[in-house]
Design a protein that fits this description.
The chain is an alpha+beta fold. The protein is built from five helices and eleven strands; from the N terminus they run αββββαβααββββββα. A seven-stranded antiparallel β-sheet has the order 2-1-5-8-9-4-3. Bound molecules: flavin mononucleotide.
């Protein structure tokens, strides 16, 4: 092998090793990101809208937050590569449903994909709200939103909705999500003990 060829081989090997190392580093960084952010307890929402054929589509989302009281704004973050991204961001109205404990079936249904998701959704109690957006029965609270703005946030969109109608059921206890698992809220007495 000539000197030139040897150098090429060494350079290619180094490049491959560097790519492998950086892929491993990226994987490790993403795992740490998930563990770190997963340490922050959240509620669980189902965000949904009608697609252009009138079918309900949406996803389970913990990336939800209150944004503004006047005007009343909230935001959710659907991943760009989720199949429901286009439905949620192009609909004039969508709903955000805060799940109650005991609604794991609903949480899992909207975390599925494709036909499995369509079948799971068809078994749920979903009606049309005052805005026309689909709403989920049994939720702790439901916000029907009009599309206010969409911003880019890395691999997720930041979808801001203006609340047009809201309903909350104080009898229900919200579901909690932390460290990759659904859990229940402590009572105030348990939390202070
Ligand atoms: C508890 C929980 C929280 C989630 N939070 C989000 C979220 O905030 N944003 C998101 O894009 N996906 C989130 N997901 C993942 C989506 O629900 C999941 O990828 C879903 O299958 C997307 O469906 P689609 O591709 O049909 O739209 C979450 C899943 C679970 C179980």
């Amino acid at each position: 092998m000539s000197q030139a060829n040897t150098e090429t081989t060494v350079t290619e090997t180094t490049a491959t090793q560097t790519a492998a190392t950086s892929a491993e580093q990226q994987e490790a960084m993403q795992a740490l990101y998930k563990r770190t952010l997963g340490s922050f307890p959240t509620g669980v929402t189902v965000v949904m809208a009608h697609d252009e054929d009138g079918q309900v589509n949406g996803l389970t989302a913990s990336a939800f937050t209150a944004l503004s009281m006047d005007p009343p704004l909230v935001l959710v973050c659907p991943q760009y590569n989720s199949e429901s991204y286009r439905t949620l961001t192009s609909a004039s109205h969508f709903s955000i449903n805060i799940l109650a404990d005991g609604q794991a079936t609903e949480a899992f249904a909207f975390a599925k994909k494709g036909d499995a998701k369509r079948d799971a959704i068809s078994a749920l109690d979903i009606t049309s709200g005052a805005s026309g957006a689909p709403v989920l029965a049994g939720a702790v609270a439901t916000m029907e939103c009009s599309h206010w703005h969409e911003y880019e946030g890395g691999d997720h969109a930041i979808l801001i909705g203006r609340i047009e109608h809201m309903h909350c059921n104080d009898e229900q206890t919200p579901m909690v999500y932390c460290r990759g698992a659904f859990s229940a809220l402590h009572t105030p007495e348990e939390a202070m003990a």
